[in-house]
């Protein structure tokens, strides 16, 4: 009887041990997530011959899939449509976006990288030596801003600019730059990657100047639905992103889209 009991216990516990071992070697996830990707350059690029998608977001998602075992399906879209899809449970994730109080109600933001914010200034409004703070304090200066990205400003700055009616909004980064170059606004906060993209497009310093704000960093992350993605899955996704940050992979990807000098402004 004792020998039988010992054999039975061994079968039970050895079986549990085998299950646990199998779970440990399994990939982070085995499901396919519905992911919206920011449709603006340089985050999303489309090559017609041969047809293929390129860009910062694709590079990030490709590496993420390789590490995690997750699969992604979806399409490029602007963040206005993405919010509607997340809110109405049609989308699991959206990449990439700055944190927003509005978005935080329906999804969790998982940090991918931070950067020193850069102020884009209309050439005719640029004054050499004038600081970012001085532009913020100048009541005659209007700011163009991407709808839903109020986190480009500190809470105090945002409250002040809204009260003074000094914010003009657009639904796309290109639209924001157009507001500045046309004179409807004088300045805008955008990213170093977008600065390089503009210069490659031929936008000169005469048209748009750039001044970095070394005191304030802006965050960019992956938004994950609170209802369509479980707490466990969200934690696993966060872990994969943190491993990509800690081993320098995120900065290697960013290095393709910013100058070596501006890469130092990322963390």
On the 0-100 scale, what is the average pLDDT? 83
Low-confidence stretches: 1-27, 46-52
End-to-end distance: 64 Å
Task: Write the element-wise H/E pattern from the N-terminal end onward.
Answer: HEEEHEEHEHEHEHEHEHEHHH
Fraction in beta strands = 25-35%
Number of strands: 11
Fraction of helical residues:
40-55%
CA-based shape: globular
Q: Whole-number radius of gyration?
A: 23 Å
The major β-sheet equals: 9 strands, mixed
Structural class: alpha/beta
SS element count, helices:
11
Features:
267 residues; alpha/beta; 9-stranded mixed sheet; 11 helices; 11 strands; 27% strand; globular; disordered N terminus
Topology of this structure?
Layout: H1 2-25, E1 32-38, E2 45-48, E3 51-54, H2 56-68, E4 71-73, E5 76-77, H3 79-87, E6 93-97, H4 101-104, E7 107-122, H5 132-137, E8 143-146, H6 155-163, E9 167-170, H7 173-181, E10 187-190, H8 192-201, E11 208-225, H9 231-246, H10 249-254, H11 260-263
Parallel strand pairs: 1-4, 1-5, 1-6, 8-9, 8-10
Antiparallel strand pairs: 2-3, 6-11, 7-10, 7-11
């Amino acid at each position: 009887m004792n020998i039988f009991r010992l054999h039975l216990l061994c079968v039970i516990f050895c079986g549990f041990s085998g299950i646990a071992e199998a779970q440990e070697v399994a990939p982070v996830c085995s499901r396919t997530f519905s992911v919206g990707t920011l449709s603006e350059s340089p985050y999303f690029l489309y090559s017609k011959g041969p047809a293929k998608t390129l860009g910062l977001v694709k590079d990030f998602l490709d590496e993420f899939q390789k590490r995690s075992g997750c699969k992604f399906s979806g399409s490029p879209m602007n963040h206005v449509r993405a919010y509607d899809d997340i809110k109405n449970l049609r989308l699991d994730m959206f990449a990439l976006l700055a944190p927003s109080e509005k978005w935080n109600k329906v999804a969790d933001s998982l940090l991918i990288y931070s950067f020193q914010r850069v102020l884009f200034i209309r050439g005719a409004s640029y004054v050499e030596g004038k600081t970012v703070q001085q532009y913020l304090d100048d009541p005659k200066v209007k700011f163009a801003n991407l709808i839903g990205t109020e986190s480009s400003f500190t809470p105090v700055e945002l409250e002040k600019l809204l009260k003074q009616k000094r914010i003009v909004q657009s639904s796309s980064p290109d639209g924001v730059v157009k507001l500045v170059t046309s004179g409807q606004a004088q300045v805008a906060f955008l990213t170093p990657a977008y600065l390089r993209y503009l210069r490659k497009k031929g936008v000169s310093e005469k048209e748009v100047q750039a001044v970095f704000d070394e005191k304030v960093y802006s965050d960019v992350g992956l938004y994950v639905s609170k209802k369509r993605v479980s707490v466990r899955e969200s934690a696993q996704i966060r872990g994969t992103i943190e491993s990509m940050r800690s081993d320098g992979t995120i900065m290697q990807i960013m290095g393709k889209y910013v100058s070596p000098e501006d890469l130092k402004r990322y963390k």
